[in-house]
TrEMBL record:
<feature type="domain" description="Histidine kinase">
    <location>
        <begin position="1"/>
        <end position="151"/>
    </location>
</feature>
<protein>
    <recommendedName>
        <fullName>histidine kinase</fullName>
    </recommendedName>
</protein>
């Protein structure tokens, strides 16, 4: 399947915008390049929805979420940044594990089973890509996925 990534990002952003705005969170997209991936569109959409869903869930009102797309060498790099509660450094390596939930956000926010990021990682790696998380505790989180482009 040939997937135009910026189109997919825009459509996911439109779908999730109401949920974000209902919580008082601003959702913005900045994608420069037109990038085509040979990927399973439904699965890739699931990756984006899971990441935006987390960003909304773990970001308080007045916050901001940004979806960025750029080409990095032979990869499409998609980054989802938020200004939310963040993830403590010592927990960062574990968030990709099935059922893992950070204690702080678990007590603060209900809902969720801890499967979202495990699924994200599985899908991205099945496309030959990589996942990465960065967070400054309390100052927000950026999740980055890189997937090889087809040309
Ligand atoms: P599910 O996605 O299955 O509904 P979940 O969101 O708790 O549940 P994951 O998406 O796998 O599970 O995320 C694992 C844990 O990582 C979360 O419980 C949360 O503690 C932390 N986390 C994930 N994304 C963020 C984020 N953007 N900001 C802060 N913490 C996050
Ligand atoms: Mg989740």
């Amino acid at each position: 399947q040939s997937i135009e990534v910026s189109e997919l990002i825009s459509s996911v952003a439109e779908r999730m915008r109401k949920k974000a705005e209902d919580k008082g969170i601003d959702l913005k997209v900045s994608s420069s390049d037109n990038l085509v991936l040979c990927a399973d569109g439904a699965r890739l959409e699931q990756v984006l929805v899971n990441l935006v869903d987390n960003a909304i869930r773990y970001t308080p009102a007045q916050g901001h979420i940004e979806l960025r797309l750029r080409r990095l060498g032979n990869f499409a790099e998609i980054a989802v940044s938020d200004t939310g509660v963040g993830i403590p450094k010592e927990e960062l390596p574990h968030i990709w594990e099935r059922m893992y939930r950070v204690e702080k956000s678990r007590s603060r926010e209900r809902g969720g089973t801890g499967l979202g990021l495990a699924i994200v990682k599985q899908i991205v790696e099945a496309h030959g890509g990589t996942v990465d998380a960065q967070s400054e505790g309390n100052r927000g989180t950026t999740i980055t996925v890189r997937i090889p482009v087809s040309n």
